[in-house]
Structures are given as structure tokens and as C-alpha cells.
Design brief:
Layout lengths: L4 E3 L9 E6 L17 E6 H17 L4 E6 L8 H13 L7 E6 L1 H13 L5 E6 L2 H7 L4 E6 L2 E8 L4 E5 L8 H18 L1 H15 L3 H21 L14 H10 L6 H18 L5 H13 L12 H8 L11 E2 L17 E2 L2 H13 L1
Parallel strand pairs: 2-9, 3-4, 3-5, 5-6, 6-9
Antiparallel strand pairs: 1-2, 7-8, 10-11
This protein binds nicotinamide-adenine-dinucleotide and glycine.
The site of glycine has 6 residues, from loops.
Length: about 375
């Protein structure tokens, strides 16, 4: 097992927390948990329930914990207020009090909803993230962003509420469908692009073995990405400046997700966003042509090609970017690479205005080859 990473929260040291990354330690999970109070509430989805949460429930019960297992159907469409209310109702019915601890076991959907329940149940109770998708292990379980979707859009209602610990068991990835593995790898690639040339080399050199699910390499992928995310969250927990870098590829990515009515997986949408936004950086002179080519080639090895962008109408993409949360003074903002492993920054600002015409030209260049 790799050494745990700690997310240090300098303004509130008591809320700092460890991230454990390893393989096959789910059966001994109780030894990683902080003291569990009256009830351990496992929140999961139906797929993960059958695969892992039932045995977690058994193992916690065997270890003497009072345990409640709550499960909702899998899928982004269940990340909503109705699911949240139902979970809260079940917890009240079982007399869960402020000492109860939630275990959010599943992908990012479970983590975001269960985290939001934890943030608001009796004005906030402890929770532990037990991510089971690659995306959740290396991104959504870390950093305390919790949310639900509303008819107005994705993640528009939520809270910052940090978990007490994150426990990522890499062995869970053995059952993950390949497209979800790629979904998570794109987010790792994104994080390395923003801050870490060595991890880009590592990904480039080992991609095929990672895709074949070498456990040691997958642990390394997660460890490297989480180290970056932890360091960003420590410096800007509430997303006021530096944390914007985690949004590389997301101005376009979110627009594509919305246009596809969320049929396109988040990571695939971000991958196309990375391509287009890298081309914008190249046009601005921040990225060299061969650096753009490196990004394009690595994504091709994940079976993501520039031709996937052709399926989208450019003007519709531009319209959707106008709803981006980074928008300021009516202008759409983008995170732009400044070489590989670094982002462009001016005066502690990490997202920059890009006009529609630049987006149009970049799009044409990306899709023409
Ligand atoms: P997901 O939670 O929908 O999981 C994907 C699918 O995989 C689901 O069907 C799930 O049941 C299944 N699954 C989970 N673990 C499995 C396993 N080990 N084996 C087999 N199947 C498994 O999707 P996701 O990609 O994990 O997360 C996406 C969500 O994360 C989005 O809602 C997004 O907004 C959110 N997100 C949040 C943050 C954050 O900082 N809070 C960051 C990135 C993404
Ligand atoms: N996934 C973006 C963030 O955590 O800020």
C-alpha cells in the first residue's frame, strides 16, 4: 500500500484528512475508519451495492457497528433532490443522530449526493468517501465539493464539506467497465497536464499496461493525481483562484456534455475539451505545435479522436459555453495551458477570457486534420 496522502487545511487543521490508496483492503475497512458513533450509514447505488456494499455492510456489522445500508438506482439522473430527500427520510426513520457517520461508497454520483446529505443532515455530520470508480478515486472523492443536479443544470446546488477520510481500494477497479476506466484516465491526464511533467511521461510510457489494469500502475495513477488535487485544494479550498486549474478542458467539456444530454461520459467530453482548449492555447502562443500533438496522440491511444468533435454543432457549443460557472462580467473564461505541466496565470488568475472567434478558428483547425 502506498503512503496515505493528507489534505492539509491550513485554516482549519482539525478538518485535515487522509487519503488511503491500496488494494484489497475493503474487508478490513473498519480499521481505517475513525471511531464510528451511533450508526454507520452506507450510501451507495444498486450496482455497487451488489458488488461491494453488501459485503462492507456485513463486515462492519461483524465488527460490532450499528449499520444502515441505503441504495438508489445507478446513474447521473438520480443525482437529484428527490434522492437526497429519500436518503434523509430513511436516516430519520432509523433515528440517525449527529454522531452518525456516512460512508459514501460508489462513483462520483454517490459521493456527491451522499456528501451533500452529510453536509446538511442536522447541519452537518461526518462522512467518509469510499470511491469505486477511477474518476471518483482520483478526483471527486477529494476536495469536499458535494452537490446535486437541478433542472437548471449540473451541480448547481451543493456545499463544500470535506470528508473525514478517503479510502480508495484499487481492487474495485477490476469490475469497472473499460469506458469508465478511460473516463477516469482523462481526468488524471488533465491533472498531470496542469502541473506535473513527470507524471505525463509516466502516463505516456505506461498507458497500455494501465489500460490492461496493472494494479500497481493504477495505484500510481491515482496517487499522482490525488497528490496534485490535494495540493490545489490546500491552497484554494473554496475555488476562488487556483482551483480553477482543475477545470482545464471543462469550459468546452461541460458544453459538450449538456449538448449530448449527458449521454457522453464526463471524461470523454473533457477529453474533447482538452483538445480544443489546447488548440486555443497554441493559437495564443502558449503551447507549441508538438505539445498539442502530444495531447492529441495520447487521447487517440484512449480511442478518443478529433473527429468525435465533428458530431457537434460549433455554434451550439459556443452558446452552451455561455452558461459556464467561470463566466465573469458576461465573458466566458478558459483555463489555458502554458506548455505541458503548467497553466497560464496572470495576477493570480487562472481562467482567462477567450472570444468566440478564437474558439471558432481553433475548432476548425482541430477538426480539419
Ligand atoms: P458514476 O458515479 O455514475 O459511476 C459510473 C457507473 O459505474 C455507475 O453505473 C456505477 O454504478 C458504476 N460503478 C461504480 N463503481 C463500479 C465498480 N467498481 N465496478 C463496476 N461498476 C461500478 O460516475 P463517475 O464517473 O464515477 O462520477 C461522475 C460524477 O462525478 C458526476 O456527477 C460529476 O459531476 C461528479 N464529479 C464530482 C467532482 C467533485 O469534485 N465533487 C469531480 C468530478 C466529477
Ligand atoms: N473537479 C473540480 C474540483 O474539484 O474543483
Amino acid at each position: 500500500m502506498l503512503n496515505p496522502i493528507t489534505v492539509h487545511l491550513p485554516k482549519q487543521p482539525a478538518y485535515s484528512y487522509p487519503i488511503h490508496i491500496g488494494a484489497k483492503f475493503l474487508e478490513n475497512i473498519h480499521s481505517y475508519l475513525p471511531k464510528v458513533g451511533s450508526t454507520a450509514v452506507i450510501i451507495t447505488d444498486d450496482t455497487v451495492k451488489a458488488l461491494y456494499a453488501l459485503s462492507l455492510h456485513q463486515s462492519l456489522s461483524k465488527a460490532g457497528h450499528k449499520t444502515l445500508l441505503l441504495s438508489f438506482p445507478a446513474g447521473e439522473v438520480f443525482k437529484n433532490g428527490q434522492t437526497k430527500s429519500w436518503l434523509e427520510g430513511e436516516m430519520f426513520a432509523e433515528a440517525c443522530d449527529r454522531d452518525s457517520v456516512i460512508l459514501a461508497m460508489g462513483g462520483g454520483v454517490v459521493g456527491d449526493v451522499a456528501g451533500f446529505v452529510a453536509a446538511t443532515y442536522m447541519r452537518g455530520i461526518d462522512y467518509i468517501q469510499v470511491p469505486t470508480t477511477l474518476l471518483a478515486m482520483l478526483d471527486s472523492s477529494v476536495g469536499g465539493k458535494t452537490s446535486i443536479n437541478t433542472p437548471q443544470g449540473k451541480n448547481l446546488i451543493g456545499a463544500f464539506w470535506q470528508p473525514k477520510a478517503v479510502i480508495a481500494d484499487i481492487a474495485c477497479l477490476n469490475t469497472l467497465p473499460q469506458e469508465h476506466l478511460i473516463n477516469g484516465l482523462v481526468e488524471a491526464f488533465k491533472m498531470y497536464l496542469t502541473s506535473d511533467v513527470k507524471s505525463l511521461e509516466f502516463l505516456d510510457q505506461n498507458l497500455e499496461r494501465i489500460l490492461a489494469r496493472d494494479e500497481v500502475l493504477l495505484s500510481d495513477v491515482v496517487h499522482r493525481a490525488v497528490s496534485i488535487k490535494a495540493s490545489v485544494v490546500e491552497k484554494d479550498e473554496k475555488d476562488n483562484s487556483l482551483r480553477a486549474i482543475l477545470n482545464l478542458g471543462h469550459t468546452i467539456g461541460h458544453a459538450l456534455e449538456k449538448l449530448s444530454e449527458y449521454k457522453l461520459l464526463h471524461g470523454y467530453a473533457v477529453a474533447l475539451g482538452l483538445l480544443l482548449e489546447a488548440k486555443i492555447a497554441e493559437r495564443r502562443g502558449y503551447l507549441q505545435a508538438q505539445q498539442y500533438l502530444f495531447i492529441k496522440t495520447l487521447l487517440q491511444r484512449l480511442n478518443i479522436s478529433t473527429s468525435d468533435l465533428k458530431k457537434f454543432d460549433l455554434e451550439a457549443i459556443i452558446q452552451k459555453t455561455k452558461l459556464d460557472k467561470k463566466k465573469r462580467d458576461e465573458k466566458v473564461h478558459y483555463v489555458l495551458l502554458n506548455g505541458l505541466g503548467s497553466v497560464y496565470e496572470t495576477e493570480n488568475r487562472f481562467a482567462h477570457v477567450v472570444d468566440d472567434e478564437t474558439v471558432r478558428r481553433a475548432f476548425d483547425e482541430v477538426v480539419k486534420k
